[in-house]
Amino acid sequence: PGKKVLIVYAHQEPKSFNGSLLKIAVEELTKQGCSVTVSDLYAMQFEPRATRNDIVGHLHNSEAFNYGVETWEAYKRGGLSKDLVEEQKKVQEADLLIFQFPLFWFNMPAILKGWMDRVLVQGFAYDLSKAYDGGLLQDKLSLFSFTTGGSQEMYSNEGIGGDIRYVLWPMQHGIMHFCGVKVLEPHICYAPENVSEDKRKEMLTAWTQRLKTLWKEEPIDCSPEWYFK
């Protein structure tokens, strides 16, 4: 009870299956006494591009623009753009980050990748000497909840897509674990568009059930073995 949850949601249509998963998470977690914040990226018209506009005021080096250096320097002096500061505040306050999205091309949608690119700046989320288990966002949990177009068989070791865990490596390990965030088992709804209405209802029920005991879960072992064994 009293936990803070940030759901970063990347789908254009509230009536979509992803929209239903979002609604369930908000309702179920609120019912548990959590305070839930949603960043609905499409509704917010979130800017996914990492540009000069992310820095307010002077540049550290006006001769040649280096986004990583400039955002790091801007973060230190409180010179990041308002939208970034707002998202960082939400992340800072959250005990749990849930990312809800449809898988696009073995990856997260561009608008969500842009959120990662822009919000998780050096100095805020990591420092080069403070990464992975030493990352700056320790004591937080994350969970990737997403839908796929392909079936579970396609995303298996024997399937054409290979093990789904290969896809999770850059997201869970390369971003979250790099920033010190612990990672819960992903929640994957395979091919909701291609299954029966009953099966879809089962998927939604399974998500509701999982959320009921979410806080008792142990994070995954954040090591290459989990992904590639």
From TrEMBL:
Any coiled-coil regions, as ranges: none
Keywords assigned: Cytoplasm, FAD, Flavoprotein, Metal-binding, Oxidoreductase, Phosphoprotein, Zinc
SUPFAM superfamilies the UniProt entry points to: Flavoproteins
MF GO annotations: dihydronicotinamide riboside quinone reductase activity; metal ion binding; NAD(P)H dehydrogenase (quinone) activity
The EC number(s) this enzyme carries: 1.10.5.1
Known cofactor(s): Zn(2+); FAD
Cellular component GO terms, alphabetical: cytosol
Keyword flag Cytoplasm: yes
Metal-binding keyword on record: yes
Database matches in Gene3D superfamilies: 3.40.50.360
Chief localisation class: cytoplasm
Domain Flavodoxin-like fold as annotated: residue spans: 3-211
Location relative to the cell: Cytoplasm
Catalytic activity: 1-(beta-D-ribofuranosyl)-1,4-dihydronicotinamide + a quinone + H(+) = beta-nicotinamide D-riboside + a quinol
Functional description taken from the UniProt entry: The enzyme apparently serves as a quinone reductase in connection with conjugation reactions of hydroquinones involved in detoxification pathways as well as in biosynthetic processes such as the vitamin K-dependent gamma-carboxylation of glutamate residues in prothrombin synthesis.
Entry similarity comment: Belongs to the NAD(P)H dehydrogenase (quinone) family.
Subunit structure, as described in the record: Homodimer.
Protein name: Ribosyldihydronicotinamide dehydrogenase [quinone]
